[in-house]
Design goal:
Oligomer: single chain
CATH architecture of the largest domain: 3-Layer(bba) Sandwich
CATH topology of the largest domain: FAD/NAD(P)-binding domain
Largest sheet: 9 strands, mixed
Low-confidence stretches: 396-401
Bound molecules: flavin-adenine dinucleotide
Radius of gyration: 21 Å
CATH class of the largest domain: Alpha Beta
C-alpha cells in the first residue's frame, strides 16, 4: 500500500513528490509516468523562462505562486548547482497604442509587489541595442533555466529519499474507495491512500477516470518556435517580450535567450489535432473529437476568429512570423531564423468557451487533480507542490477553483 501515488513525471508531479517527501520522510511514494523518461512533454519543451509574475491578476494563484515560485526556483538552482541566469527581461511598446496598455501593466505589477521600472527608448537600447521601441518596462528578476535539468535533479533527490518511479507505465483506470484509491496501470495495479493527478495534457481524462465530473476540458495549443542562426544570436542579449494584449495574454511572440546560448523566437499558438502533436501534420482522432465535440471550443473559436487566423497564418507563413519578430528587432531577416522543436500547451477551457486563466486544482475523495497548470507552472512548480502537500491530509478543505 502506497501513501501517495503521483501520476505524471513532469515538473509539477516531481515537485509534488518532492514537497511530500520533505514533509513526510517516511511516506511510501511512487511517481507513475507513461513515457520511459521524465519531462518528455510540456516540461521538456518550453521556453525555459523563470517568470517574475508580471502578467497575473493580483490575488490569483498564478500571481502568488509565480512570485514565490520564481524565488524558490532560483534558490533550488543555486543550492543544487543547476546552471541558470537571472538575465532580466524587457517588455517593449512598439507603437503608441501600446503605451496605455504598458501603463496599465505597470500599475498591475505594483499590486503584485514586483520591482519593475519604466524605461525610455535610450535605456531600452542600452539593455537591448537592436530593439526598436518607443518605451518599455524592465523586469530585472526574470531568469532562464533548462527545466529538464531541474527535473532530473529533483528525480535524483527523490530517489535518494526513497521515492519509487514507475516509468513506461500509463494509468488506464482509477477507482476511489472509502479507504483507498486503486490505480490501474499498463504494468500493474497500485493501491494507495491518496493519489495526485499531475498528467498535464491528459489531466482531464484522469479526472474522468476517477469518476469526477467537471466542466473543464483540456484543449491543446501547439506553440511553434524558430531559433536565430548562430551568427545572429548577438541581436538578443536577454529576454525581449511585447506588451501583452489583455484579451489574449498568452499570444505574442517573444525572443528568448536559452541556457545553451541559442535564442528562441516564438511561440505562436495553433490548435493541435493531437495532444502530444509536435508536428503540423500530427493527428489523433480521439484527441480531435474531444475538442470538436466540446461546446466551449466552438464558442471560443466563434468569438476569436481574427486572432485564430493570424496565428494560423504565422504557422504556415514564415514571413508573417518574421514580421512579428521585426516589430521588436527590425534587423531580423527571414534567413536568420530556422524552425526548432515545438511544444504543446495544456490549456483548460470551460463549457462556455472561456479559457481557465488561473491554476485550477480540484479534489476527489482521496485524490487531488491539477486540472490547469499552464505557464508559469514550471516557474511555480515547487510552490504548487508545497500547496498540494500542505492540503493533502485535509483533502476536503482543498477546493481551489
Ligand atoms: C510552448 C510552451 C512554452 C512554455 N514556456 C514556459 C516558460 O518559459 N516558463 C514557465 O514557467 N512555463 C512555461 N510553460 C508552461 C510549463 O512548461 C508547464 O506549465 C509545465 O511544464 C507543466 O508541467 P506538468 O508537470 O503539469 O506537465 P507535463 O510536463 O506535460 O507532464 C505531465 C506528464 O504526465 C504524463 N502522463 C500523462 N498521462 C498519463 C497517464 N495516463 N499515465 C501516466 N503518465 C501520464 C505525461 O507523459 C507527462 O510526462 C510553457 C509551456 C509550453 C507548452
Amino acid at each position: 500500500m502506497y501513501d501517495y501515488v503521483i501520476i505524471g513525471g513532469g515538473i509539477v508531479g516531481l515537485s509534488t513528490a518532492y514537497a511530500l517527501v520533505r514533509k513526510y520522510p517516511d511516506a511510501r511514494i511512487v511517481v507513475v509516468e507513461k513515457e520511459t523518461e521524465i519531462s518528455a512533454h510540456q516540461t521538456g519543451r518550453n521556453s525555459g523562462v523563470i517568470h517574475s509574475g508580471v502578467y497575473y491578476k493580483p490575488g490569483s494563484l498564478k500571481a502568488r505562486m509565480a512570485v514565490q515560485g520564481r524565488n524558490s526556483m532560483v534558490k533550488f538552482c543555486q543550492d543544487n548547482g543547476i546552471p541558470h541566469e537571472v538575465c532580466g527581461k524587457v517588455l517593449v511598446a512598439t507603437d503608441k497604442e501600446e503605451l496605455p496598455r504598458m501603463e496599465a501593466l505597470y500599475e498591475r505589477v505594483q499590486q503584485n509587489g514586483l520591482n519593475v521600472s519604466r524605461i525610455d527608448r535610450d535605456e531600452l537600447r542600452e539593455i537591448e541595442p537592436y530593439v526598436d521601441g518607443l518605451a518599455g518596462l524592465k523586469v530585472p528578476s526574470t531568469g532562464i533555466v533548462n527545466y529538464k535539468k531541474v527535473s532530473e535533479k529533483i528525480k535524483e533527490l527523490l530517489e535518494q529519499a526513497g521515492v519509487e518511479f514507475l516509468l513506461g507505465s500509463a494509468v488506464v483506470d482509477i477507482t476511489e474507495r472509502k479507504e483507498e484509491v486503486v490505480i490501474d496501470t499498463t504494468e500493474k495495479s497500485l493501491h494507495s491512500r491518496y493519489m495526485i493527478n499531475c498528467a498535464g495534457l491528459f489531466s482531464d481524462r484522469l479526472v474522468k477516470m476517477a469518476g469526477i465530473h467537471t466542466d473543464v476540458r483540456i484543449v491543446p495549443f501547439r506553440g511553434e518556435y524558430f531559433e536565430l542562426t548562430e551568427e545572429k544570436t548577438h541581436l538578443v542579449k536577454g529576454l525581449i517580450y511585447p506588451i501583452p494584449n489583455p484579451d489574449f495574454p498568452f499570444l505574442g511572440v517573444h525572443l528568448t535567450k536559452m541556457m545553451d546560448g541559442g535564442v528562441h523566437a516564438g511561440p505562436n499558438a495553433v490548435l493541435s489535432f493531437k495532444r502530444e502533436g509536435y508536428q503540423k501534420t500530427d493527428f489523433h482522432w480521439k484527441d480531435t473529437l474531444d475538442v470538436l465535440s466540446f461546446p466551449g471550443f466552438w464558442k471560443m473559436a466563434g468569438s476569436n476568429v481574427k486572432e485564430g487566423m493570424k496565428e494560423m497564418v504565422r504557422s504556415f507563413h514564415k514571413k508573417s512570423f518574421v514580421k512579428s519578430l521585426q516589430r521588436l528587432v527590425p534587423d531580423i531577416q527571414a534567413e536568420d531564423v530556422v524552425p526548432t522543436d515545438a511544444g504543446v500547451r495544456a490549456q483548460a477551457m470551460l463549457k462556455n468557451g472561456q479559457l481557465v486563466d488561473d491554476f485550477h486544482i480540484i479534489t476527489g475523495k482521496r485524490s487531488v487533480h491539477v486540472c490547469n497548470a499552464p505557464s508559469p507552472a514550471a516557474t511555480a512548480s515547487l510552490e504548487i507542490g508545497k500547496e498540494i502537500a500542505k492540503k493533502l491530509p485535509e483533502l476536503k478543505a482543498l477546493k481551489v477553483v
